[in-house]
């Protein structure tokens, strides 16, 4: 171990194994020795070329539904990005791509139906991964608790109805901090995993883990992962692979990490340069192994090492973008008024249902279609660059 660089995953896998083996030795009897040898044997049996860390690369195009452009431009950005993905999938058989946000899929379905059918085919094949349980990648600090639940309810329902998939991960790479209420909401909604990158932007304190248990206010826990490169626009170049290995704070415990490659924010996704690099990096001397695969499969694999991960309790606070709590205050005020008005409407409508003939509940008695439409628009405006006030004036 002492002859290896501390940047290397192999150094840390040996260090953690030695530490765990030493902790077994109290009485120094044969049973303890057997347990210690069992821990060490995994590392000592590795041959030259056996990896101590692997990278799961996944094509990505983080698309802000509004930011430096209005919503109507996002609809076109989504179409251009998804078209590029589909054409590159024809040329690169290993290519796996993922996209979140039910709202984005809804727009493609409405405005580009032929494109949408192609996407559905790739989803059925398993080459295109549907990610993120929310309607949009929403702000979680200013949005109310009921709104966060609706994000998950309507997001999961859309993906279930459209693609027959129950989404188990929350995908929020770029949101400006995460309320301590989220693990409870997610766990009760059937969401077990959480991915972000944004905490790597913190200004003063470095978040201590890249793979960890996140525990909420009521003790609910979900498994969280932050790609160690700290980037959702990775170049997938050798420097990205090396930086992922160097930066991964849970080397020696976690044996795998994510790398999200492609052009995001304004969309575009992976280009030929990303995919050509990955073709050459599968098993290249000098780099840890890189393979393409879905985020859900990645989470299912790392979940098996769960006992060794550390736990973070409470809010995941971002030491950056603090102005998003207060900027464009009028937007925030009317958002809260809308949340309260929707609650009052549903309360009153539910009361009318109790008083009505249960065999004949009409839209006039319980306006379910109106509520669905209005909630979806409200949830769209809770996107993490709209409600926080970080977009251009036109937005």
DSSP summary, beta strand count? 10
CATH level 4 superfamily of the largest domain: Glycoside hydrolase 38, N terminal domain
CATH topology heading of the largest domain: 7-stranded beta/alpha barrel
Mean pLDDT, nearest integer? 96
Largest sheet: 5 strands, mixed
- Strand arrangement within the widest β-sheet reads 4-5-7-6-10
The assigned CATH architecture of the largest domain is: Alpha-Beta Barrel
Please trace the helix and strand order, writing H or E for each element. HHEHEHHEHEHEEEHEHEHEHH
The low-confidence runs, each spanning 5 or more residues with pLDDT under 50, are none
By DSSP (H or I, 4+ residues per run), the number of helices equals 12
Q: Report the sheet-strand fraction.
A: 5-15%
Can you give the helix content as a percent range? 40-55%
Assign the structural class, choosing from mainly alpha, mainly beta, alpha/beta, alpha+beta, or little secondary structure. Answer: alpha/beta
End-to-end Cα distance: 54 Å
Q: What's the gyration radius in Å?
A: 23 Å
Count of individual domains:
3
Description:
This protein has helices spanning 9-24, 30-44, 71-91, 102-111, 113-125, 145-163, 182-188, 238-247, 272-280, 295-302, 329-355, 368-380, and strands at 54-59, 97-99, 128-130, 169-171, 193-195, 211-215, 221-225, 256-261, 290-292, 311-313. It is an alpha/beta fold and 395 residues long. It folds into 3 domains: 9-44; 54-313, 7-stranded beta/alpha barrel (Alpha-Beta Barrel); 322-380. The chain has a 5-stranded mixed sheet with strand order 4-5-7-6-10. It is globular, with a radius of gyration of 23 Å.
């Amino acid at each position: 171990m002492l002859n290896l660089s501390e940047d290397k995953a192999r150094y840390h896998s040996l260090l953690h194994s030695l530490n765990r083996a030493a902790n077994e030795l109290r009485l120094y009897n044969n049973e303890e020795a057997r347990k210690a040898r069992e821990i060490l044997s995994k590392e000592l049996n590795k041959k030259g070329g056996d990896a101590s860390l692997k990278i799961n690369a996944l094509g990505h195009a983080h698309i802000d539904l509004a930011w430096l452009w209005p919503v109507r431009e996002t609809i076109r950005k989504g179409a251009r990005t998804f078209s590029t993905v589909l054409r590159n999938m024809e040329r690169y058989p290993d290519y796996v791509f993922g996209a979140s946000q039910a709202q984005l899929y809804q727009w493609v379905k409405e405005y580009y139906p032929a494109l949408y059918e192609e996407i559905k085919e790739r989803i059925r094949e398993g080459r295109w991964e549907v990610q993120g349980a929310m309607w949009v990648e929403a702000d979680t600090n200013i949005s109310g608790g009921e709104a966060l639940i609706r994000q998950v309810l309507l997001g999961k329902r859309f993906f279930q109805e459209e693609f027959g998939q129950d989404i188990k991960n929350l995908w929020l790479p770029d949101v400006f901090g995460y309320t301590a209420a989220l693990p409870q909401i997610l766990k009760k909604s059937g969401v077990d995993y959480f991915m972000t990158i944004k905490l790597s932007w913190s200004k003063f304190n470095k978040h201590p883990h890249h793979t960890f248990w996140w525990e909420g206010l009521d003790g609910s826990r979900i498994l969280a992962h932050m790609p160690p490169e700290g980037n959702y626009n990775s170049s997938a170049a050798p420097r990205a692979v090396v930086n992922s290995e160097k930066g991964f704070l849970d080397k020696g415990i976690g044996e795998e990490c994510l790398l999200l490659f492609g052009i995001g924010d304004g969309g575009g996704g992976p280009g030929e340069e990303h995919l050509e690099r990955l073709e050459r990096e599968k098993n290249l001397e000098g780099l840890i192994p890189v393979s393409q695969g879905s985020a859900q499969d990645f989470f299912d694999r790392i979940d098996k090492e769960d006992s060794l991960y550390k736990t973070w309790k409470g809010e995941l606070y971002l030491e950056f973008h603090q102005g998003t709590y207060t900027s464009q205050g009028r937007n925030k005020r009317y958002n809260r008024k809308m949340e309260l008005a929707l609650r009052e409407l549903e309360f009153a409508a539910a009361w009318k249902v109790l008083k009505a003939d249960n065999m004949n509940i009409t839209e006039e008695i319980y306006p379910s279609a109106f509520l669905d439409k209005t909630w979806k628009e409200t949830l769209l405006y809770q996107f993490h660059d709209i409600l926080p006030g970080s977009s251009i004036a036109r937005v």
